[in-house]
């Protein structure tokens, strides 16, 4: 039983803390305040309207009284025709709540209702008689019933002022207002309860896409990242959330694919030298008989160890670069001078492959960057160009100011094997290498272009690739100039436009 109470308590806490409950509570609180405000507004409006009706009726009676009331010889006389029912009713209405007094405050005529309200004092009568206009005030009788009283002066046949006051009860108006208030606020809890039920239903429908997102997130694993939530078609914030979630899962799926491909490639790249090292050592252990044989096996193993160390160093450096651990030492660098030095370094390897390496260098291309990293960028591009260009081909390097103001341009193009259109989106991925009959014999780790992409990114530049399979490739790097705010870098030719080398 205690366990059941704990489960129930946890469930209640989860409901109270849930978004649906909070939305419903906000909805109910909003409509409670709105309904209370509307009730008070309508109550006040009704009160003003009813009091206005009483005031208008009082004014009509006041105006009618002047036609029926005469004061002769200090005596009030009502001159209505008692045989006329309409006149008799009007006079009876006027005489229902009234008081007539002389200028000294002595009452001349009044009714019991006015007496219950309270006769005006002589000082009050003299004060009102001194005013130019009649006054209206609210007064209460002994039972607490409010009356609207209008008091002023009326002249006798000689023009002497007399005090005259009539009144009308506000009791029916107040009764109507109280009845409305009581009825409305008795119904208010029912309206709030209905509002709560409606809010709970609407909140449940509103957060249904959120529940779908939560269920999808809970069911998502590394093997089903292709899961997508269907859009509602409403074009609202929830559809935007669903689109964002689907894009996020697509990015995660792509990242997991890259991780899996990276793991596979690393395993392959590390297994090859490790297998070679193991083979060399096994040969030395089982078959070597002379010191020269042992020495040769050890030298071969050391070469494979060096290859393995190169892979590890490259991976470490690339990981440090992408995680921000590599600090750039930036300064003003003449891009043409840097290109000239790197091209000179690659002349001998190019001649060894019978590849013509040439450069077109225009002065004035000064960039703000890290000399070591920019040198690595061009070295990696030239290394790939020379390796993938067959004997008799050519590699061209050009550097100089770009046509767009504030930018410098570096271009490396070759007449090598080229890159198929299907491979172009992946050439900057780690360990990615184009696999075909022409490139299978070329050694490499597939990390060079990953370094190139990172170096271009941290320098605020762009890199574009144009290539035709079997004809060659062109890499165009745009870097911001050192002392100007560059305009957006121009877009280079697409794959199909590469035919003007």
Task: Provide a descriptive summary of the structure in words.
This protein has 501 residues and is of the alpha+beta class. It has 3 domains: 1-206, Beta-Lactamase (2-Layer Sandwich), CATH 3.30.450; 237-322, Helix Hairpins; 330-497, 2-Layer Sandwich (Heat Shock Protein 90). It is built from 13 helices and 14 strands. The chain has helices at residues 2-17, 19-68, 85-94, 112-117, 122-129, 171-206, 208-219, 237-286, 291-322, 335-345, 347-352, 371-387, 448-458, and strands at 69-72, 75-78, 98-101, 107-110, 135-140, 146-155, 161-169, 330-334, 356-361, 366-370, 394-401, 407-414, 462-468, 472-480. It has a 5-stranded antiparallel sheet with strand order 4-3-7-6-5, sandwiched between helices. A 5-stranded mixed sheet has the order 9-11-12-14-13. Helix 2 (19-68) runs antiparallel to helix 6. The longest helix has 50 residues, at 19-68. The protein is rod-shaped. The two termini are 84 Å apart. The model is unreliable at 491-501 (pLDDT under 50).
């Amino acid at each position: 039983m205690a366990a059941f109470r704990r489960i129930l308590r946890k469930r209640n806490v989860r409901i109270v803390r849930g978004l649906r409950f909070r939305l419903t509570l906000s909805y109910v609180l909003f409509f409670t305040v709105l309904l209370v405000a509307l009730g008070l507004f309508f109550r006040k409006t009704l009160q003003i309207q009813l009091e206005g009706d009483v005031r208008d009726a009082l004014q009509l009676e006041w105006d009618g009284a002047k036609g029926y009331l005469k004061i002769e010889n200090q005596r009030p006389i009502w001159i209505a025709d008692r045989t006329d029912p309409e006149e008799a009713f009007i006079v009876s209405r006027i005489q229902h709540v009234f008081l007539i007094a002389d200028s000294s405050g002595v009452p001349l005529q009044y009714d019991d209702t006015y007496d219950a309200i309270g006769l005006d004092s002589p000082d009050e009568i003299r004060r009102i008689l001194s005013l130019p206009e009649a006054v209206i005030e609210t007064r209460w009788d002994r039972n607490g019933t409010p009356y609207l009283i209008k008091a002023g002066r009326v002249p006798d046949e000689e023009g002497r002022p007399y005090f005259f006051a009539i009144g009308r009860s506000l009791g029916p108006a107040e009764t109507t207002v109280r009845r409305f208030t009581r009825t409305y606020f008795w119904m208010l809890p029912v309206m709030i309860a209905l509002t709560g039920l409606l809010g709970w239903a609407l909140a449940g429908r509103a957060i249904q896409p959120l529940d779908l997102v939560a269920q999808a997130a809970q069911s998502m694993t590394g093997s089903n990242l292709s899961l997508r939530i269907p859009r509602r078609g409403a074009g609202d914030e929830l559809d935007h959330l669903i689109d964002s979630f689907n894009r996020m899962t697509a990015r995660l799926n792509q990242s997991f694919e890259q991780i899996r491909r990276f793991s596979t490639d690393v395993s392959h790249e590390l297994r090859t030298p490790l297998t070679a090292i193991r083979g060399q050592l096994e040969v030395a252990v089982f078959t070597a008989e002379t010191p020269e044989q042992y020495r040769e096996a050890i030298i071969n193993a050391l070469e494979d160890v060096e290859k393995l160390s190169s892979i590890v160093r490259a991976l470490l450096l690339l990981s440090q670069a992408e995680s921000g651990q590599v600090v750039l030492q930036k300064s003003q660098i003449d891009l043409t001078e840097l290109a000239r030095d790197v091209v000179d370094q690659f002349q001998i390897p190019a001649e060894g492959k019978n590849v013509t390496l040439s450069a077109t260098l225009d002065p004035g291309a000064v960039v703000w960057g890290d000399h070591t990293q920019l040198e690595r960028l061009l070295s990696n591009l030239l290394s790939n160009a020379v390796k993938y260009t067959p004997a008799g081909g050519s590699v061209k390097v050009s550097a100089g100011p770009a046509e767009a103001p504030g930018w410098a341009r570096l271009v490396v193009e070759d007449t090598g094997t080229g890159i198929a259109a299907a491979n172009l989106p992946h050439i900057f991925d780690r360990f990615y290498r184009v696999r075909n009959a022409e490139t299978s014999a070329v050694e490499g780790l597939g990390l060079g272009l990953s370094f190139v992409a990172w170096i271009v990114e941290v320098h605020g530049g762009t890199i574009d690739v144009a290539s035709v399979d079997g004809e060659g490739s062109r890499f165009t790097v745009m870097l911001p100039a050192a002392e100007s705010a560059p305009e957006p870098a121009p877009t280079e030719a697409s794959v199909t436009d590469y035919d003007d080398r």
